[in-house]
Amino acid sequence: MLSGFDLTPALPEVTLLVAACVVLVVDLFVPDSQRRVSYWLTQLGLLATAWFSLYVFHETPVRAFGNAFVADALADLLKFFSCITVVLTLLYSRVYLTARGLFRGETFVLTMFALLGMMVMISAAHFLTLYLGLELMSLALYALVALQRDSNVAVEASMKYFVLGALASGLLLYGMSMIYGATGSLEINQVAVAVFSGHANRLILAFGLVFVVSAIAFKLGAVPYHMWIPDVYEGAPTAITLFIGAAPKLAAFAFAIRLLVGSLAAMWFDWQGMLVVLSVLSMIAGNVIAIAQSNIKRMLAYSTIANMGYMLLGFLTANVNGYSAAMFYTIVYVLTTLASFGMVLLLSRSGFEADKLDDFKGLNQRSPWYALMMLLVMFSLAGIPPTVGFYAKFAVFEAAVDVGLVWLVVIAVITSLIGAFYYLRIVKLMYFDDPVDQAPLESRFDTRVLLSLNGLALLFFGVFPQQLMGMCVVALTHSY
To answer: How many structural domains compose the chain?
Structure first.
């Protein structure tokens, strides 16, 4: 136990907060023509935060601030990946944001505060800390979606996101209050002790669990709490869609781990049944509805819903192997999402959103290399070897089979085959159709290099997944 004045466990958060405040002040004095100063300060702050996340790596959990905050291997690893994800998001988005007048301090500061909320969620050891992190992230995301104020579609998407997000927050608070009433504590560890001892009121706990799982399902975008995802993905500027679709998924995974595994592990049989329903519905609805989409952002939104269904298979095992497989799946999905929306941003230009499936027609004739990168992305999302998406699905399937959930894995395999149709449709459009858009692909050199490395990483980790999977196992083993 550390004293309340020792900020070492929260060094990444402090670094990010200081960087956000510096960017906020500096941007006031920077002319529009020099916005790159704010941009590079933001990137520097994010990289420093990522470095401190590994610098303070904790092999054993350290609790601070009155047991409200925990720094452990799981938190350190997820914070590192979250920071790197946001760094890549901003790099991919630079040209897009500049062309639409969004390359300004508000975007960078809101992005950093959203990331700060994610990091607080990831290290939460108390229900109130978890809620504060969630709200800090959510409020920043609502503002980012509506940042393009002259776009009615973006404002509408933001309002939908805000209303449904507020509802989910209400569900979470109500569930937490019931768990508090049953256990007498808001500390995650103390709740776990009360539940394990059997002294807590089981009926009230069960009711609280229903509301908590509902809030988790909303943050993950699982059916039937998925309604906001397609509209927000389509309505938000593509750069913001990339941000929402990537880093927050890592925070949502930590959100689920802290609540279900950290505090309510003794009730695994109860929440397992709920997650089975969420997983099956998400896999089926996500893959089937995605087939009918002609907008690639909506298609990828339904793909997200389906992928969260697959990720939940790891939670259903109620053991460390399953949790580490779910964590590996989440990291792989974020890596793939970066590349997929990175390609959409690459094809977009001033006054043109490359958000239709037809915009990918004949991409191989325009750029064989980028067509190959998009092919790797689609193969990874579909779970086709040798991409890392195959190994990620195999890991969660294997974990589910090991605990006897064979019937569920059969459903998952069938829905994966359905999903392969709309992923491979993109490949068919790129390689076998004539291009509709003949405009040359223009992008910065750093964007081209990083997008290429991102695509090749999907292949590399598919062939050599052991190190990344090993990191996930170590993080969860040392934390739980």
So the answer is: 1
* Close Cβ partners of 118 (under 8 Å, ≥ 6 residues apart): 82, 133, 137, 247, 248, 250, 251
Count of all residues that appear for the chain in the document:
480
What long-range pairs does 61-67 form, CB within 8 A, spacing at least 24?
A: 61/478, 61/479, 62/2, 62/9, 63/1, 63/2, 63/9, 63/125, 64/1, 64/2, 64/4, 64/6, 64/9, 64/10, 65/4, 65/10, 66/4, 67/1, 67/125, 67/126, 67/187, 67/189
Q: What is the pLDDT of residue 1?
A: 47
Per-residue exposure over 15-46, b if at least 16 CB sit within 10 Å of its own CB, e if not = bbbebbebbbeebeebeeeebeebbebbbebb
Contact 133/184 with Cβ under 8 angstroms? no
DSSP result, 295-358:
BHHHHHHHHHHHHHHHHHHHHHT-SHHHHHHHHHHHHHHHHHHHHHHHHHHHH-BTTB---BGG
Tell me the C-alpha distance between 258 and 70, whole Å. 10
Residue 1 lies in a domain: no
The answer to whether residue 367 sits within a structural domain is yes
What are the tens digits of pLDDT across the range 163-180? Answer: 999 999 999 999 999 999
What would the pLDDT profile of 397-431 be if each residue is shown by its tens digit? Answer: 999 999 888 999 999 999 999 999 999 999 999 99
Q: Return the residue matching tokens 């209303």.
A: 163
Domain extent for 72: 8-479
Distance CA 293, CA 296 (A): 7
314 inside domain: yes
Mean pLDDT by 10 residues, the chain (480 residues): 65 93 90 86 94 82 86 91 94 89 89 95 92 93 88 88 90 92 88 84 88 91 87 90 92 91 85 91 93 91 93 89 93 94 86 80 87 92 91 93 91 93 92 78 81 92 90 84
SS3 7: coil
Domain assignment present for 374: yes
